[in-house]
Design a protein that fits this description.
Aldehyde Oxidoreductase, domain 3; 11 helices; elongated; TIM Barrel; 12 strands; alpha/beta; about 280 residues; about 45% helix; 2 domains; six-stranded parallel sheet
Length: about 280
């Protein structure tokens, strides 16, 4: 699993290449400056720790003016950086890229969390993340008030449609997982129909995922599943939008997983202003 240090190092190498030729030609090596990172739109800020590491690696100092998960307004400063002007400009774009994209994820997550407020349902992310940036994007989901689903394939078992098609026995697969992994290892199964959901609820699983079922279907099905396994967690997944998430939450499901949090969140506009 990549570390924050290695992620930032790779991003800086990608951006700077063999040197910032423009800055080297225009800015004296001895010149120093203060840079103020400013929000240009309303958002939930995330990625400050990543930006701090960016400026650390280029030799500038950092002071936060906001915390991860804070709401920010247009014109609000979220951090200051100090050091050689060349260093600040060398880290500027990489730092802003991280803040903009991670704040986008946090902001969209907060919108989903607010949309289901009072229902008891939790908003979860998925593994639909940018390769190599999963840890950062999942941290941004947490900053927005969401909950992380499994990070890696070895964190929990999720038996999906392709597994069901390939296996000879779902029940035997669940028994094998429980025997090998123990009682505390989370096992989840995806159901795409009422018949599957009721059958899988009888197995020794921890979470039942209702995948791409309609709101009316889930409204009827959730009480049926509860009658079989009152403490079984029920997750809704597939095509969830801000327009539909409240109705889904009101069916009584415990979790709602939303891939859009990490694969479709629009970036938030931030800038770095030198003084």
């Amino acid at each position: 699993m990549p570390t924050l240090k290695s992620i930032v190092s790779a991003a800086l190498a990608e951006d700077i290449g063999r040197g910032d030729v423009t800055t080297e030609a225009t800015v004296p090596a001895s010149k120093r400056a203060i840079g103020r990172i400013v929000a240009r739109q309303k958002a939930i800020v995330a990625g400050l720790d990543v930006a701090r590491e960016v400026f650390k690696q280029v030799g500038a100092t950092w002071r936060s003016r906001a915390k991860e998960g804070d709401p920010v307004r247009p014109g609000q400063g979220v951090a200051e950086v100090r050091g050689r002007t060349r260093s600040i400009l060398g880290g500027e774009r990489v730092a802003l890229n991280f803040i903009q994209r991670l704040s986008g994820t946090a902001t969209l997550t907060r919108a989903f969390v607010d949309a289901v407020k009072g229902t008891g349902a939790k908003i979860l992310d998925t593994r639909k993340t940018t390769p190599g940036l999963r840890l950062l994007e999942k941290a941004a989901v947490r900053a927005g008030g969401g909950t992380n689903h499994r990070v890696r394939l070895d964190d929990a078992a999720l038996i999906k449609d392709n597994h069901i098609s390939a296996t000879e026995s779902v029940a035997a697969a669940v028994e094998q997982l429980r025997r090998r992994r123990g009682p505390r290892f989370r096992i989840e199964i995806e159901a795409q129909s009422r018949a599957q959901a009721l059958a899988f609820a009888e197995l020794d699983i921890d979470v039942l995922m209702l995948d791409n079922l309609s709101v009316p279907a889930m409204r009827r099905l959730v009480p049926e599943v509860r009658a079989i396994r009152p403490k079984l967690l029920i997750e809704a997944s597939g095509g969830v939008t801000l327009e539909t998430v409240r109705a889904i939450a009101e069916t009584g499901v415990d979790w709602i997983s939303v891939g859009a949090l990490t694969h479709s969140a629009p970036a938030v506009d931030f800038s770095l202003d030198l003084a």
